[in-house]
Amino acid sequence: MRWIACLLLLAGCQQTGPVAQHDGLPTIVSLNPCADAVLAEVADKQQLLAISHYSRDSASTSMPLDLARSFHSTSGAVEEVLALQPDVVVAGSFLAPATRAAFERLGMRVETVDVASNFGEARDQVRTLAALAGHTDRGEELVARIDAALEASAGHGAPIDTLLWQEGGIVPGPESLVAAILDHSGFALHSAARGLGQGAYLPLEQVLADPPHLLLTSSDERMLSHPVLGQLSDMRHESFDPSLFYCAGPSVPRALERLADIREGLS
Q1: Are 234 and 255 in contact (CB under 8 A)?
Q2: C-alpha–C-alpha distance, residues 59 and 127, integer Å
Q3: Which domain holds residue 83?
C-alpha cells in the first residue's frame, strides 16, 4: 500500500481535472497485445499513448513488428502508465485487482478485454474498442474486412485432419478462436477429435503414432521441428505464425488468408 500512497501523492502534484484529450477524444494506454492490434487500427496514433511491451516482441505480438515499434510501449507498471497520464487504461481480464485499484485511484478509467473465442466475440471486441476510442466507423470498417475475409475463405469439401501444435507441445481447445478459424477454413482439429482441450500437452511420440494429415507448427523449437517428422510421408508440415491466431481483430483476415494458401497447396 505504501507505493500506492506514493503514487497518489505524485498524482496530487499533477495538474488537476481531466487530462487533456486528443481532439476531444480519450487518450489510451493499452496493456494487452490483442487490444494493441485493434487500437492501432481504430484509434488516432496520437490517442494511443503506449501499447504493451508484448507487441514489440516477435514471440508474443499480434501485429506487424514495424507497426508495433512505431508506438511507445510500457511494461505495465503503474508508475510508467501514470507518467503518460492517459484517460483510459485498457488491459486483459486478468489484470491484478490491486493494479486496477491503483489506476482508478489515480483517476484513470480502466477497461478490460477478454480473449475472443468465436467470430461473434471478435466482432464485439473490435466494436467495443473502436467505440472507446471514439471511432465507431473505423471499427465497422475492420469488422467488414473480417467478414469479407470469412466470405472469401470458406472451406469446401471434406475437412482436412489438422494438428495445430504450439510452442511447448500444447494444442488449442475446440472452443478457441483459432479452432473457429480452422473449422471455417475447412480444417478439422485433430487434437479435439482425440479429446484434448485447451493447453493440453501432446508429446512427439503420440504425434508419430497417430499423425494428422496436416501438421501446423507455431514454433521452430526442437520437438516441433524434429527431423523424424519428415519421415512421415503421408503428413504435410506447414508453419502457422502464432501472431495469427491468438487475437481478434486484424490478425483474423491474415490467418484466414494464410490457411487459404495452405489449403490451395494441399489441393
Answers
A1: no
A2: 27
A3: 2-114
